[in-house]
Write a structure and sequence with these properties.
The protein is an alpha/beta fold. Helix content is 33%, strand content 22%. The protein has one domain: Rossmann fold (3-Layer(aba) Sandwich), CATH 3.40.50. Strands 3-2-1-4-5-7-6 form a seven-stranded mixed β-sheet, with helices on both faces. Helix 4 links the parallel strand 4 and strand 5.
């Protein structure tokens, strides 16, 4: 369970995922993330004996990995809301919440996750659980929605509510930025942490088409502090007008930003590169740069 503030209503998230499954999921983001994840793994030049796919909302990652020689065996760690997505007969499943992982310590060579961890309340706690489950020199590779994702929808809602209702309520989840995620990896004890971001600009016929895609991704409002009463029609229509005015293209379509933040880290092992001890360098930085060293307090000549 989360030990810090409760930002997301996990029960609402499970309802959203079940509804998305009934509607027919919109999979273009998760499919892209799954393809990119396999490309990134192939660059590692290792074969992983036992891997776990952590809470990815569809089986896209596992389908991609089964078509490669990167992983010998993969376990789906999935919540009850989307347990049915692992339809392949060879999939082994563990039904568990991403905030409380029943994974044995030092048991996995690889943990991957695609577009799920942005809805975890205690992300540092989940990172620590993943590190414990990995074997020494095991790899954690994940993608989550972060950064400025859906900033257009956030701003349009805020402007419409400020204009018509004299106050704004949260409609779009807060997303962690790339620097914060990198710091959390270090805090969780991962070695060689790396983060980067893949920014996508997706065009829609209207803001309502975007909102329909979000429903089919299971990504509608699951904030614990969300407003429980329906949004007024006038506010919704004004939001759409503001969205089109600020973020529309000449052809009438509107833009939506999705930032996919990638993170990776290794469970520490003696074979990994280690930083040098302070004072152990044998070459002066000034010599390496071909410049003159100036003692502290002196001014450089003109």
């Amino acid at each position: 369970m989360a030990s810090g503030p409760i930002v997301f209503d996990r029960a609402a998230l499970r309802r959203n995922l079940r509804r998305a499954e009934k509607l027919g999921p919109a999979t273009f983001l998760i499919d892209r993330a799954a393809e990119d994840l396999c490309d990134r793994l192939s660059a590692v030049l290792l074969r992983f004996e036992l891997a776990a796919d952590l809470a990815s909302p569809t089986d896209a990652v596992r389908r991609r990995l089964r078509g490669t020689d990167l992983v010998s065996n993969i376990i789906a760690v999935t919540g009850p809301a989307n347990a049915g997505v692992a339809a392949h007969d060879d999939d082994r499943k563990i039904i568990a919440d991403a905030e409380a992982l029943p994974l044995r310590e030092d048991s996995l060579d690889l943990v991957v996750s695609a577009l799920a961890l942005q809805f975890v309340n205690d992300l540092p706690g989940t990172f620590v659980q993943v590190r414990r489950a990995l074997k020494p020199d095991g790899l954690f590779l994940a993608a989550l929605i972060g950064g400025d994702s859906l900033i257009e929808l956030r701003q349009a809602f805020a402007a419409a509510e400020a204009e018509l209702e004299h106050g704004a309520s949260p409609h779009v989840a807060p997303f962690a930025d790339i620097r914060a995620i990198g710091a959390l990896l270090q805090r969780a004890g991962f070695a060689l942490p790396v983060t980067d971001v893949d920014r996508l600009s997706v065009r829609y016929q209207s803001p309502f088409a975007l909102m329909q895609d979000l429903r089919r991704m299971g990504a509608t409002n699951a904030l614990a502090e969300r407003r429980r009463i329906p949004l007024r029609r006038g506010t919704l229509m004004r939001m759409a007008e503001i969205y089109a005015e600020r973020f529309g293209d000449p052809d009438g379509r509107v833009r939506a930003t999705f930032d996919i933040v990638w993170l990776s880290g290794w469970k520490p092992h003696a074979s990994q590169p280690q930083p040098l001890a302070p004072g152990s360098a044998r070459t002066r930085l000034a010599d390496a740069l071909g410049t003159q060293e100036i003692p502290a307090g002196d001014k450089a000549g003109r």
